[in-house]
User: Which sequence fits this backbone?
């Protein structure tokens, strides 16, 4: 588990250049102070960085590349994709049910030849 907060430096030095020589603890406590968070020292970097990134974005730092409009559009697209997949799955299931009724004793060869034409 990585907790060396200096790994955050390449991302945040553009906003906080005075921290260029900061230690891991310096970064940790500075980011908590800037964001108003109280991040446990033992929290893995991935979780800690995400907390700080979100808090910085809420303060106006360009720490999150997506706008609210981008997120809403992505969610709408995901909803449409899910609906399309559900329709496909429902139709596929109906096709298999129909095949089971129409050809319960067909061999594989008979099914393949009927599909050709």
Assistant:
């Amino acid at each position: 588990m990585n907790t060396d907060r200096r790994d955050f430096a390449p991302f945040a030095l553009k906003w906080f250049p005075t921290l260029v020589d900061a230690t891991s603890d310096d970064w940790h406590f500075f980011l908590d102070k800037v964001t108003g968070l109280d991040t446990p020292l033992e929290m893995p970097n991935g979780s800690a960085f995400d907390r700080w990134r979100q808090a910085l974005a809420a303060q106006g730092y360009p720490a999150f590349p997506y706008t609210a409009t981008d997120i809403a559009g992505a969610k709408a697209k995901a909803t449409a994709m899910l609906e399309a997949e559900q329709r496909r799955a429902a139709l596929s299931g109906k096709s298999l049910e129909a095949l089971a009724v129409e050809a319960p004793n067909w061999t594989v060869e008979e099914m393949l030849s009927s599909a050709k034409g």
